[in-house]
Amino acid sequence: FRVIAKNAAGLFSEPSDSTGPITVKDDVDAPRIMMDVKFRDVVVVKAGEILKINADVAGRPLPVISWTKDGKEIEEKARTEIQSTDNTTLLIVKDCIRRDSGQYVLTLQNVAGTRSLAVNCKVLDRPGPSAGPLQVDGVTCEKCTLSWGPPQENGGAEIDYYIIEKRETSRLAWTVCEGELRTTSCKVTKLLKGNEYIFRVMGVNKYGVGEPLESEPVKAQNPFTVPNAPKSIEI
Questions:
Q1: Which of 94, 102, 133, 157 could form a disulfide with 70 if both were Cys (CB 3.0 to 4.6 A apart)?
Q2: Of 214, 74, 210, nearest to 152 (Cα)?
Q3: What domain range includes position 119?
Q4: Which PROSITE patterns does the record cross-reference, listed alphabetically (predicted)?
Q5: Which run of H or of E encompasses 119?
Q6: Are 96 and 179 contained in the same domain?
Q7: What is the pTM assigned to this prediction?
């Protein structure tokens, strides 16, 4: 830029020195997230409660707001709601269940950059099913041995013990074999020869009895049989 003066007589002065090249830029600010310090720790909620994660946001131009959980974009559904204004955002998860545990990430983006902040959440609930398959070995006409793995989802608490049950495939009622087993294998006895059984195992933590893991049907019989009488004997 330069300046030229003009007087009442209509005469112009010599131009001033030039300012030199000036680059025009937009007035921009990188996105910023302001979140309560309590979200730095793992957020713990009980099953059935409401999870709320809120933050103040800023940036120029106004940043685009997005939420993800475990790397996947969160969609608003019956239990999930996102409320956002120019300066705030709020994620609400109603009636929390075990699979709502995980990492929630708030991301802001505009032409000046991207900013993300993660919040880890744990939902306290009954355990998920034990890791399968429920293996049935050493089957005889009277007994067998069961083995399985601990639940991948423990509901946010240690597994206290396992409940083992059996039922005949011809019946609907389950019978308890072990009520407080503290290992991931057990021997089941008192089977009836020739009957077909299904077994199931359930982990238990301080929040309740978990989902069952069932076995395939197994018939109580010896792995060997008595041979038939010889036929067509030749001397």
A1: 102
A2: 210
A3: 29-124
A4: FN3, IG_LIKE
A5: strand 113-124
A6: no
A7: 0.67
